[in-house]
């Protein structure tokens, strides 16, 4: 079963844009020395983007999603990013299965 061309095109365009933004940062800022404040901003940017993508899902008010958010926030206070993301995804999946809307 093959996905339709529009879906493949969208995936390809998203990959190109993602790569362009990542390499663009290196090309524009690679030879500059950033201030501590700018470094902090650049370090915080990925988390801000992630929150802006997932926040609307939590605003819907599903109990499973709200509980998964609390579990993820607790994990984020004690663990690095990758385990926190894995715990968040796993808890959301489990809770959505256990607590259907």
How would you sum up the global shape? flat
* Percent range for β-strand residues: under 5%
The helix content, as a percent range, equals over 70%
CA-atom Rg in angstroms: 18 Å
Mean pLDDT: 85
Number-wise, the strands total 0
Low-confidence stretches: none
Describe this structure in words.
- This protein has 101 residues and is mostly helical.
- Helices cover 80% and strands 0% of the residues.
- The radius of gyration is 18 Å and the shape is flat.
Explain the layout of strands and helices.
Layout: H1 5-29, H2 36-59, H3 63-76, H4 81-98
Helix pairs in contact: 3-4
In short:
The protein is mostly helical and 101 residues long. It has four helices and no strands.
Characteristic key phrases:
single chain; 101 residues; mainly alpha; flat
């Amino acid at each position: 079963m093959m996905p339709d061309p529009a879906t493949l095109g969208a995936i390809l365009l998203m990959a190109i844009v993602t790569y362009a933004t990542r390499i663009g940062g290196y090309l524009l800022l690679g030879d500059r020395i950033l201030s501590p404040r700018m470094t902090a901003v650049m370090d915080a940017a990925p988390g801000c983007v992630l929150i802006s993508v997932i926040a609307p899902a939590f605003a819907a008010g599903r109990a499973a999603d709200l509980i998964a958010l609390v579990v993820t926030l607790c994990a984020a206070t004690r663990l690095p990013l990758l385990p926190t993301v894995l715990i968040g995804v796993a808890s959301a999946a489990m809770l959505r299965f256990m607590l259907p809307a």
